[in-house]
Model the fold of this input.
Amino acid sequence: MRTHYLAIDLGAESGRVMLGTLDGSRLSLEELHRFPNQPINANGSFTWDIDRLFIEVKTGLRKAADRKLAIHGISTDSWGVDYLLFDAGGAVMPPAFHYRDARTALGVKLTTARISREQIFDETGIQFMPLNTLFQLATESSQRLANASVLLTIADGFNFMLCNVARIDESNASTTQIHNPRTRRWSEIILDAMEFPKRLFPPVVPCGAKLGPLRPELVREIGLPPIDVIASCSHDTAAAVAAVPVSIEPATASPGRAPDWAYLSSGTWSLMGVEILEPLITPACRRMNFTNEIGHGGTVRLLKNIVGLWLVQECRREWALAGRQYDYADLARLAEEAAPFVSFINPADPRFIAPGDMPQKIALGCRE
Done:
């Protein structure tokens, strides 16, 4: 018997709506709709165009409706750390800040003035990156937080817009640096230290939790029946690692013994790590800036964030603005033709974190 599912996959450069068909033990995937994700740089802030993304999602869902298939579920995954604030009427409160917005540096200072790095890591097991949700929230105005009804990570926010049920899947909650991976709850210590309104943080649910049916107005607008919305692995890396065709056994996945396989998931960021059964929250792990994120089945992804395709993506964007369009195949060919080992840069240099004129930033780094 064939069963069909819809997946909304939101990446920092593009998004897509996928049709998955399960036929016995065989899973096939088909891309129904792909669309760019182009952040907005206006009024001094770097933000996401959530309204346009949701319009694109609905376009993909209409294409699914045109297939006249019996869809058994729909879910969304996205990049981590960013969030949406919703008002009492369920509407998104703009702006939806991008994790590369310049405000994050201030967020680190405001946070560490209230709670130490050591205590933050002991509570969350999450590596220190200025882009983390914790630091972003520290820069929010008290008035904006007071006006908000609920906070949801990006994928969970889209699930909410689909079904009107506000929950955060633990794979995305674990990336916020506000969630405790031992208790699998929001960290009371961090919430109290930062004086964040606790009412903003909805219940955390396990990967695969059923939320509710598609909103009636979307049923009418799109043409799909009231199918169930599922909080699957709403963090994209958790979804990717869940697809790795291996299993972990207690004998090889304990904190004292690493498994014999690792993963590398590459996109705007690259994530490399292992999958274990319990979080590894130690001084050594903190010093090496590793991170513990929750995955499908409650497993833990012990991993390291690595600068991925961000520099290439930004160069492509700048070249396109100048009228030079390159796809990734073009860039791969040009790289093969170029003289090797002429210049070296450190992609993790802070100068490359923010968007804007990346080719010039790289050229300056090479000259230096």
In short: The two ends are 62 Å apart (CA to CA). The longest strand covers residues 26-36. The CA atoms of residues 50 and 319 lie 25 Å apart.
